[in-house]
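Per your request, structure below.
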């Protein structure tokens, strides 16, 4: 498979730093080895008492896990209470918590910046609907959670600064990338301060950290898509250390829950706040996990893990116990709501760091482990997940001049490059090439007919080939063990044949984990369900085994 867009850059982790994994020691014991299997997940026993306000990790001398919570998890005071309850469930862990902005705050901050350009002064800015919504949400949350006076003053100051930035936009009549990065940073800066204060109000020790300041996240000066620089790992490792007990006789560390802003860094040259782009908070979590040489990062979502298909479209989806990083990357590229590939890079570059996707509404579920090696090997592994991408355009490029000639594909992709169009999948024969295009990867809207006509005209004017364009297709991607592709194809096509679904194109990924089939949109849902029934004949909610019987 060929793709028309490059992979976003991400800094690699120093192999020397990861050569010896330092796990936190528990009092009087050696640190346990965390195994890459669902059985290793620290789930809660059914008879466990409700979480009490006991300080997690009292027996540890260092942080042991990173937990990332998204905006929906900290959307309001009630959800923050639930997050605190989840954290307190893991009494044997010393957590670093990475939080996103509350609810729709990021969207409201961006909207405030845009709408501010229609204002004349500070009074008009203060009355903007997004500004009022942001202020009300954070003030109501602080009142409901009973945060301390110092935090109340800090958050109020940030709210006022946010309005000042919007007033600056109104006066300058522009909202640059640097300004937008500064604006959206207020969301994480406020949510982390409020939540850390709430933990302290429960009698727990907790410290709030701005990743771009206290932790030393240094990024390139691309204000809305900064790339993590290697010095960040050293900065984080130095910053996230625990204070020693005043009692010199014990020399013990004082347990403390770190609450860190996700999504943010500081530009290397400019010194200005920058955001980390898509998946930025997940990236923050994995960078911290790699810097501290931890075994796992928990990413909390609202499902039991990575599912075998989209539950909104397919009945009987099941949670997968394990995904390789390569599989997770393929799933993300083809539209599954997993993790952005860039956010997994620090874990992929490490020797042992894994990412576990867990359900904040079902803490006991082990979740899906995304890791380096499949527990129990790959012998019994067949199919991981099925993903459908809708509204795909296909180009059939036919030319007898292609036969036995070199440079033909170079000419084809040069035209695609000049048009700024991303190519998803490619299938070739001796005299034709078929390409699928994903407009959402380029314009965040559908390709209009004029653009398709111009593309066809470019091919024909260049005398390269005849081109036929068809729209309204679905790309069905089977992510699995392509070493067993004969079985996957045989069973998959039997299921499609039984459902009377016609396949327009086939492409096997160079990654060896993906087979893609193109069908018409009106048969897309039927195709996904037919294949899913063939490979996943399980009851809803069942978690597939992914380890040896001895591991269970």
């Amino acid at each position: 498979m060929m793709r028309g867009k490059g992979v976003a850059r991400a800094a690699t982790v120093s192999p020397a730093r990861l050569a010896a994994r330092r796990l936190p020691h528990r009092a009087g014991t050696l640190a346990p080895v965390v195994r890459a299997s669902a059985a290793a997940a620290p789930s809660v026993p059914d008879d466990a008492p409700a979480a009490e306000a006991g300080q997690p990790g009292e027996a540890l001398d260092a942080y042991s896990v990173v937990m990332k919570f998204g905006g929906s998890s900290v959307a309001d005071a009630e959800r923050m209470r639930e997050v605190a309850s989840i954290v307190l469930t893991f009494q044997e862990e010393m957590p670093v918590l990475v939080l996103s902005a509350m609810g729709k705050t990021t969207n409201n901050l961006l909207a405030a910046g845009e709408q501010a350009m229609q204002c004349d002064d500070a009074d008009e800015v203060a009355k903007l609907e997004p500004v009022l919504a942001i202020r009300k949400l954070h003030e109501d949350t602080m009142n409901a959670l009973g945060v301390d006076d110092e935090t109340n003053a800090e958050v109020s100051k940030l709210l006022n600064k946010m309005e000042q930035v919007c007033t600056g936009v109104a006066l300058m009549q522009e909202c640059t990338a640097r300004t937008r990065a500064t604006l959206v940073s207020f969301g994480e800066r406020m949510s982390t301060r409020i939540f850390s204060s709430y933990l302290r109000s429960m009698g727990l020790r907790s410290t709030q950290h701005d990743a771009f300041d206290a932790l030393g996240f240094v990024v390139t000066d691309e204000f809305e898509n900064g790339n993590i620089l290697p010095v960040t790992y050293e900065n984080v490792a130095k910053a996230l250390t625990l204070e020693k007990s005043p009692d010199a006789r014990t020399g013990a560390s004082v347990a403390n829950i770190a609450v860190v802003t996700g999504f943010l860094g500081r530009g290397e040259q400019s010194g200005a706040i920058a955001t980390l782009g898509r998946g930025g908070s997940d990236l923050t979590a994995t960078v911290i996990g790699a810097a501290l040489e931890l075994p796992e990062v928990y990413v909390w979502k609202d499902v039991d893990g990575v599912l075998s298909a989209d539950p909104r479209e397919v009945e009987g989806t099941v949670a997968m116990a394990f995904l390789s990083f390569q599989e997770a990357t393929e799933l993300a590229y083809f539209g599954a709501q997993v993790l952005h590939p860039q956010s997994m890079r620090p874990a992929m570059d490490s020797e042992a760091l894994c990412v576990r996707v867990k359900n904040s509404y079902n803490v006991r579920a082990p979740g899906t482990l995304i890791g380096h090696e499949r527990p129990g090997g790959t012998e019994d592994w067949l199919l991981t997940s099925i993903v459908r991408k809708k509204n795909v355009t296909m180009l059939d490029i036919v030319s007898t001049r292609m036969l036995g000639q070199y440079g033909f594909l170079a000419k084809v992709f040069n035209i695609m490059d000049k048009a700024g169009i991303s190519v998803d999948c490619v299938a070739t024969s001796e005299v034709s090439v078929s390409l699928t295009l994903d407009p959402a990867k380029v314009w965040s809207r559908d390709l209009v007919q004029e653009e398709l006509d111009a593309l066809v005209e470019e091919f024909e004017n260049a005398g390269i080939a005849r081109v036929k364009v068809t729209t309204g297709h679905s790309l069905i991607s089977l992510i699995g063990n392509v070493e067993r592709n004969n079985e996957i194809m045989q069973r998959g096509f039997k299921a499609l044949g039984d459902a009377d679904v016609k396949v327009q194109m086939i492409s096997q990924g160079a990654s060896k984990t993906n087979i893609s089939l193109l069908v018409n949109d009106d048969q897309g849902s039927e195709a996904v369900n037919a294949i899913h029934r063939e490979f996943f004949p399980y009851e809803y909610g069942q978690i597939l085994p992914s380890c040896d019987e001895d591991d269970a």
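Residues 415 and 458 are 7 Å apart (CA to CA).

Regards,
D.
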